[in-house]
Design brief:
Elements: H1 2-8, E1 16-17, H2 18-27, H3 32-44, E2 48-53, E3 56-61, H4 63-77, E4 88-94, H5 101-113, E5 117-120, E6 123-126, H6 131-141, E7 147-154, E8 160-166, H7 173-182, H8 184-192
Antiparallel strand pairs: 1-3, 2-3, 4-6, 4-7, 5-6, 7-8
């Protein structure tokens, strides 16, 4: 459903009639009930919004869905393009408490979507500079109080240089905590990609 909306509705910034979406999904093998349930779930997740005009219901993509679709479009259609960001890697470390399990799982899902890999339960690494995307994600999920993000330059000599820390109450201490948790050798291997 999101793919259809992203390909055929998003480029025009328009809304789409619910009956048309249900009919289209029917052509793809979905029952009317299943199509309506899917639309309701997308509304609940904040990906589309319902617009009532008299007796007709239309749907429109929300700004959040537009951002997700834009990220996805960039990832899909840039596949294979060289990505030169000067050797800067992005590392995220978090300590999201158990009572915020939903935020933790959403963070993990979105980090995977961005191309991050999990080094350990709460340590995520990307071989690209994605500080801006991650900062947006952390703000959206409201987990800045328990996350630390930093960039690392990984040079040809396989040296690691931390280039800064951003997001979270820990600030630069987050890097020290990460190294303390993983140990200097494992942290270095994580940043070097092996």
């Amino acid at each position: 459903m999101i793919t259809l909306l992203g390909l055929y509705v998003r480029p025009f910034g328009e809304r789409v009639w619910s009956g048309g979406l249900v009919s289209l999904l029917g052509e793809l093998g979905f029952s009317t009930g299943a199509a309506r349930v899917a639309l309701t779930r997308l509304v609940r997740r904040g990906l589309i919004e319902r617009i009532l005009e008299g007796r007709l219901v239309h749907y429109r993509i929300t700004p959040r869905a537009d951002r997700l679709l834009s990220e996805g479009h960039g990832r899909i259609f840039s596949l294979g393009d060289p990505h030169d960001d000067g050797g800067t890697w992005t590392v995220l470390w978090h300590q999201i408490p158990e009572d915020r399990r939903l935020e933790r799982s959403r963070l993990a899902r979105r980090l995977r979507f961005l191309g991050f890999g999990s080094v350990q339960d709460s340590v995520w690494v990307s071989p690209h500079d994605q500080a801006v995307e991650v900062a947006r994600l952390i703000e959206e999920l409201d987990v800045s109080d328990c996350t630390t993000v930093f960039g690392a330059l990984v040079g040809a000599a396989r040296g690691v240089t931390a280039t800064g820390s951003r997001v979270g109450a820990r600030g630069p201490a987050g890097l020290a905590a990460l190294v303390a948790r993983l140990g200097p050798e494992r942290a270095g291997r994580a940043l070097r990609g092996f």
